[in-house]
Specification:
With about 140 residues, the protein is an alpha+beta fold. It is built from 2 helices and 9 strands. β1 and β2 form a beta hairpin.
Length: about 140
């Protein structure tokens, strides 16, 4: 009985350790496939302000390039995916004037495009969380 209990405890311990390691590997290997993703809402983590999609907000990833639209200007540039992160290289944008509410969201996103963690349905860092869903 005592041997069975020790064996069962050891199996449970090593089984849990293996599951945790698999989870870490999955997080490190998350990527976005080439394609277009609808942005459903954007959270400003600094002010805890949430902005719902007011138009055709989206992000497109295609062969290490990205394009993004959040209501006014187009943001675009190079992007790399590494260890579950999107890493933006010198993003640029068009420079049209728009209503203040759209410019506020756009400026939040544009200044946050350095590095974003990829999760199941969002892209985020310490400034912003961009919730996405794949366009079908």
């Amino acid at each position: 009985m005592k041997k069975s209990l020790i064996l069962l405890s050891a199996l449970a311990f090593f089984g849990c350790a293996n599951i945790q390691n698999q989870g870490n590997e999955m997080n490190a290997n998350k990527t976005l496939e080439n394609g277009e993703y609808k942005i459903t809402h954007i959270l400003d983590k600094q002010n805890n302000s949430q902005y719902p999609n007011t138009g055709n907000w989206s992000i497109m990833i295609e062969n290490n390039r990205f394009g993004m639209f959040v209501g006014c200007n187009r943001i675009f540039g190079e992007v790399q995916q590494n260890n579950g992160k999107l890493i933006f290289k010198a993003p640029a944008s068009t420079k049209m004037m728009c209503p203040d509410d759209l410019m506020k969201v756009e400026n939040l996103v544009a200044t946050s495009l350095t590095e974003l963690d990829i999760s199941l349905n969002s892209l985020e860092n310490d400034k912003v969380k961009i919730t996405i869903e794949e366009n079908k």
